[in-house]
Amino acid sequence: MNKKLTSAEYPGIITLTTDWGSNDYYVGAVKGRLYTMMPDARVVDITHDIAPFDVAHAAYVLKNSFKMFPEGSVHIIGVDSEDFATSQMVQSHVVMQYKGHYFVGADNGVFSLILDGEKAGAIVELTTPFEAVSGKVRFSFSSRDRFAAAAVHLARGNDIMELGKQLDGTRELMLFNPSYSNTYIRGVVIHVDHFENAVTNISESLFEKVAQGRKFEISFKRTRLNRISKLYSDAREIEPVALFNGAGMLELALNRSNISGLLGLRKNDPVSIEFHD
After folding, report:
1. 57 Cβ contact partners less than 8 Å away, ≥ 6 residues apart
2. Domains in the chain and their CATH numbers?
3. What are phi and psi of 130, to 5 degrees?
4. pLDDT digits (tens, 9 = 90+) for 86-118
């Protein structure tokens, strides 16, 4: 954060990133709770279509969208990890301050993926109690019964340290990083978007670092490409195209079609780039 905001300068924005879909009561219940506690809040749906229990998907979406919001915004992450969903273990809850924003969610590795090796401004384990709904405390709906109150506290410009005890870090979740040398980059598909375009973990900065202006060949699923396009339309219809997307990651697509469905390119499939003089 470049400067400390006064409470009057906080935007009152609370975002929601969840795997709840749109057919159940969950989204409405959390929004109702937020507006009950803070009628002047501005609640924004980033997405409710995260793949169920896919912490990496949630981190990818939020990491590439939160910076577009003003500093002081609060981001609720309503995604549990699969190991928690299938067990009876107790899951701790965390609030994190990072780049002038606040994040509230379960300590399931999502925070480490958002940080991506950088350092948080502050990390606090929530010790505030769950809210009782209809006279009962329900630990299964933490976004409504715990995260909402923490988000409102922060959206009003209150101190993060009042929410619990400070932590040195959060649970680490390691994803596969590209390997590379002077002659190659080896990566994988990390996300297939709504249009079934395949997003890889190869960044534009890494590509430029290794390429040094040399010729190259991108290989995946028996397909070879030797150029990076600016637009999808740089390729003919239903022709493969490679470009760097708005998040600065190498994306593979078919112009006016879907590369995942037609070529079978799926999450975790390998993608390689060979460089030559």
Report:
1. 50, 51, 191
2. 7-166 (3.40.50.10790), 179-276 (2.40.30.90)
3. -70, 150
4. 555 557 999 999 999 999 999 999 999 999 889
